[in-house]
Amino acid sequence: MLCRRMDGYGPGMERLTVVPEKVAWVLVRGGRVLVTRSHGIDVFYFPGGRREPGESDAETLAREIDEELRSRVDTATMVHVGTFETRRDSDGSTEFRMICYTADHTGPLVPAHEIAELDWFGYADRARVSAVDRMVFDLLHSSGRLP
Length: 147
Description:
Elements: E1 2-7, E2 15-25, E3 28-29, E4 32-38, E5 48-49, H1 57-69, E6 72-73, E7 79-87, E8 95-102, E9 105-106, E10 115-121, H2 131-142
Parallel strand pairs: 2-8
Antiparallel strand pairs: 1-2, 2-5, 3-4, 4-10, 6-9, 7-8
């Protein structure tokens, strides 16, 4: 699903701007955070994805983690980590918003669908993730969760 933001240019002159969004899962264990890499891409990202029409953040996260990692997110344990906005890595001109949650899960973490691999990164690996993910790494590092 796309978010809409109105940019004002005066009465009757407003332009609709569409901002792509991703709902992402931030799973921290032992001072490392789970990241994934899609086939054909070198950069790692937090697992998650875009909302389908009518989905809530919880429904999106549960569906995406099942599809990408064959694991079940416990949506009752979801806690909002933060919402981060930046420019997309691919073109540098399009705004992008990522809404991040922690949550417990059950089942193994197995790469599936478009996911080529998963890994556990520390703060020192920050340069290997996307620009918006680096913002989350910085937040986790400043709060002591990612040494």
